[in-house]
Give the backbone structure.
Amino acid sequence: MVILMARYSKENRRKVLGEALTNHPFFTDEELAERFKVSVSTIRLDRGELGIPELRERTRAVAQGAYSTLKSLNEQEVTGRLLELVIGERARSELLIDESMVLAKARVARGQYLFAQANSLAIALVDAPMALTGSVELKFIRPVQLGKVVVAEGNVLKRIRSKYWVEVSLNVDSQEVLRGNWILFSIGDLEDVRETEME
Amino acid sequence: MVILMARYSKENRRKVLGEALTNHPFFTDEELAERFKVSVSTIRLDRGELGIPELRERTRAVAQGAYSTLKSLNEQEVTGRLLELVIGERARSELLIDESMVLAKARVARGQYLFAQANSLAIALVDAPMALTGSVELKFIRPVQLGKVVVAEGNVLKRIRSKYWVEVSLNVDSQEVLRGNWILFSIGDLEDVRETEME
DNA sequence: TTTATAATTGTGACCAGGTCATAAATGCGG
DNA sequence: CCGCATTTATGACCTGGTCACAATTATAAA
């Protein structure tokens, strides 16, 4: 007696295999063989045919690519490059809108990056080991396209003890694209944060 | 005649080795041996002593870590989980504030995540293959702590052809933490985007 | 049913970049 | 010169492959 497993056809298997490996690149050939109920040799053949490299190559590719992107993301703690900073007074930063920041279709920067640049500039202006965004009012004025350099300018308008009023303006080709007013608190102690009531 | 290379002392070599591998994890033992002018065995010994795994392990670690973070970043296309969506009317989403979203020290969510949740909800409300944030006015009312679930509620207030007025409110434990008003354009064609003048 | 062809599976030799244990060589202070 | 730390070498083994080739199995056509 022979039990026939319902398998994929060759084309189907290859299609599914390709998809599986793009979504989840860390399978060994052995694991794939089990999953598809074929031999390891078949999997190797399939990979060969599909031009998919071996596990280690795939891992290396992910690691390399991801490493550089994550590194650049990390450096975005202060999003953009600080050009000028007089703590408690004024600051400027610039940010190049790259592939990773745009909406796939529109090639236009996602709002959060512009916000992040403005917000981090506001925080940098506050002379404290830690600053907290209390309240913001902002206006996105126009979209920013891939490849543009956004220049952020921030100014401290007023300060009363640990409370700062900061104004930030983002410009592209000397046209304003975002403007906002921040109220920030400079804090040293965590307890302050947890209990601070902002209004 | 013997030419003595100026090498590192054992401690120094190990210190530098450790630093080198954290900044640049893709060196093989052989490359390291050349760099430090010692044998491969010595490098292996050093790694053993320092508890640094082999190249493939390191690559795997970078790839795995980076992969999941990048994936989650990607999934933030619509930040948060959609709970309800009546296109053109109202929508709700929720977002759990996790480790990756908080400021290291304050354990408080970075503003861009809240903005991203609100912004993506606003965009989801617009019945179009693509939507563009034209203008936003928003107010961050209070900080959100690690582990909290943020519930976003969005409502379309008005619509004139492709122009939408949307109001979004974010709440934690039924306290409002962010409120904003969006003006969005629903678009089908890229050319529209590039030339759209928003005011 | 037989047979031609496609698809799959297995085999053996080889590779990189290691692990681990053990042994041999070298450097250097007292 | 001894003795100990340090470095280097050696050989067996591991994983997750590569490549070339042969053997087996499935399937459809004559």
User: Anything to note?
Assistant: The CA atoms of residues 103 and 110 of chain B lie 6 Å apart.
